[in-house]
Amino acid sequence: MDTIVSGFTVFFEAPFWVGIFECESAAGYEVCKITFGAEPKDSEVYEFILACWRHMHMRAQKSDKKTVKRAVNPKRMQREVKKLLMRRGAGTKTQRALKKSYELAKAERKQKAYETTEKEKEEKREKKHFKKKKKHRGH
Fold first, then answer.
1. What is the Cα–Cα distance from 31 to 6, expressed in whole angstroms?
2. Is 24 inside any structural domain?
3. What is the pLDDT of residues 83-102, one digit of tens each?
4. Cα–Cα distance between 31 and 29 in angstroms, integer?
């Protein structure tokens, strides 16, 4: 059976509160960034995850390493959970994944903009050529 490890981190990134939803499975690593307005309560975050997790636009990235599940001492687990709760912001892996997806989206936007401007130039050229032909046609 395939294991899926997921986490949701909420932090303040001036001027908004931001949530990062991370999901790691055998298929790879996926991440989604959600921007909240005011500071969300725990119950609001829980309701949001239950209502909208299927509709989140996850950005897939290839996983750097496979997650290895092993037995952890309960006290060590408590310390790790405490560290995670005290940690501010998103992890570097998440930041790299988001940055890469933003760069891909930016490249797509630039390509689309280039194609539309070329199309407009071609239409303008055709219109000018048509006017020129119309002038020389005669009555």
1. 10
2. yes
3. 887 776 666 777 888 888 88
4. 7
